[in-house]
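pinned: reference chain
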Amino acid sequence: MPVEDINTQAWKVYGQRQLARAYAPPVPDQMSWAPWEGVGPGAEVLGDITGRRVLDIGSGAGHHAVHLVQAHGARVTGIELSPTQHERAAASHADVEGVQFTQGDVAEYLAGAEPFDAAYAIGTLGFIDPHRALPALRNGLRPGAPLILSLLHTDLHGRGPSTEVAPREQMLLLRDDPPLPTRMWVLAPRLWEDLLTEYGFRVEAIDLLHHPDESATVIQQLIRARRLPDRPVRVSSRPRSTRPPVAHAAVGVGAILLSEQGLLLGRHRRGTLELPGGTVEAGESFEAAVVRELGEETGLIARPWDVRLLGTLVDHVEGVLRVTVGALVHAWRGQPAAQPDESVGEWAWHPLDRLPDGLFVCSAQILTAWCPDLAIDHTVRPRHTDRDDGGRPGVIANADSSL
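pinned: its structure tokens
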């Protein structure tokens, strides 16, 4: 059965059980983004929503939507896929002016709706494929509109979020009833940020909301994002002349991998010892270049989100501008081994306090910029160091070299 059909069935049964119990959660006094109260911000993260059209994604019993209408003057539409959950909301709050409840799929609903001024989901967006939900939300929100998402981060069993965009089994718990199996996208914050950015949002903050009981394992993510403005009309471009540009720069990457055994270095066929790395290909990000070169040279497998860029080394070699981006790889799979037809092999781990002689100058520059206390001498000493520990490339060295 398709993943989202499994979830639809689970929430239908959940709603049936709650209807049988005649349970309707009370309208809260303030907005709560986690299953427990008194943790995190309130409705203020949505901005001023007085008179604004707000979308409640997976509105369930409707109590959050009613709170925003009654306490903040919003006009709220609750969209709910489960017919039994929709029945609960409609039965309890049909007479509330300013709120309406619609049963259906959020992506299909937004395809024909007027764009909303804000949207939020409390624990529900993780049940929908983000590659389907996020583009629909981008098209269903006006430019600049906030999107607030409360998502599971760590579950009852202490399992943390995934670093791959794939669903996994999670259980819906109900008192006095058997748990219901579902499939959820429980993703790491950086992965959610990458997905939101890909689909036209700017992430403004990601907070982790912990249970008041410090022994509890469950943690919620609270993501505050904003729909980016539409792109302006595209303008044309043209070459300066019909002649090809003169080659005057070489751009490459160098990767630092540090294990309990030490630093990974390989020997070039010309004798130098160096970090994994190589030339950046056209249209390739620096992170992607690190991942590709690491696999081609050592056989190790990493992912772009395992790579943190440290900065950019700039030097000049016999008329060629050389640009080298240093990177730190904090996770990988496999064991390093020489690869066929590669110019670097003999991969080995070296303790930082016993590094071998004969380091390639670019590798030496990256290492000393990363850790200035390393006992490395090389002919090109950076004039200054601007390390960017936020993961964004900055200048770490600007030097001239005659090598």
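why pinned: The chain is about 20% helix and 30% strand. Helices lie at 3-21, 63-72, 83-93, 106-111, 130-140, 189-198, 286-298, 361-370.
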